[in-house]
Amino acid sequence: MSETLLLAQLEGQPEIFYSLQGEGVSSGVPSIFVRCSGCNLQCHWCDTEYTWNWLGTSFPHAKDRPGAPAKYDRRSVQVRLTAPETTAIIAQIPCDNVVFTGGEPLLQQDRLAEIGAALHAMNQDYQIEVETNGTLVPSPEFDAVVTRYNVSPKLSNSMMDRSARLIPDTIQWFAKSQKATFKFVCSSEADADEIAAFETEFRVSRRRIIVMPEAANQQSLDERRRFVFEICKDRGWRFSDRMHVAIFGERRGV
Ligand code: SF4
Question: What is the pTM of this model?
Fold first, then answer.
């Protein structure tokens, strides 16, 4: 019997939906998104904080207001499914690019490996992408089913301790994997300097670095897009827009 997978819940259903990949190296690719619940980081500006910012915790968040912290009742934003149940939902959608996202999907990589293997048993053409914060090393079983890692290391603008967000051995693992690209959100010159320091420290080719504006809504995206465009020109990094933020703002499940 398969262990259950913790997924985000949206309107009473597991957050599994069909859309276009909105950012990064496969931007624009029709994709099925599977949003895992739970994260091992608590980034200050996280735009999926409903996957980890539970009532009863004291993590600060940019959406906090005096007397009104941005907290969620875990029972209303999480749902449990088995790997076969999750596989069955994915298989009903006529699309062969699957994106495991979160939260942090690698916290549940054993169950995701089971889903990936089941999908490949049905159809070898399935491509499996993983959005990860790059703090957990994939197991051989999980790596065997993954096509692409969209690694998003966090900068100090996340307000997380460096020791939690940048684990050298883990970053080196992804740097050695030809399946990985590194995607950063940027809102200042200081952020750009940190990305450059990452490039040097971990010897990651700038061809594998993708930078996009930090933005949780259309207004902040409009304000930062041009700035990040110029940063990418100056530093030789690949620019990525935030398609979902540009089109849908803060809407979920789109
Ligand atoms: S790692 Fe990603 S999901 Fe986790 S808190 Fe940071 S931005 Fe949110």
Answer: 0.95
Residue from 132, 133, 212 to probe ligand 1 pocket by mutation (most atoms less than 8 Å from CB)? 133
Q: Is 132 in the pocket of ligand 1 (CB under 6 A)?
A: no
Fold of 4-185: TIM Barrel (3.20.20)
SS3 67: coil
Helix/strand/coil for 138: coil
The domain limits of the chain are 4-185
* Sequential pLDDT tens for the chain (254 residues): 458 999 999 999 999 999 999 999 999 999 999 999 999 999 999 989 999 999 999 999 999 999 899 899 999 999 999 999 999 999 999 999 999 999 999 999 999 999 999 999 999 999 999 999 999 999 999 999 999 999 999 999 999 999 999 999 999 999 999 999 999 999 899 999 999 999 999 999 999 999 999 887 888 888 889 999 999 999 999 999 988 888 888 787 78
46 Cβ below 6 A of ligand 1: yes
Contact 183, 149 (CB under 8 A): no
Q: What are phi and psi of 241, to 5 degrees?
A: -80, 175
Q: Residue with the nearest Cα to atom 3 of ligand 1? A: 103
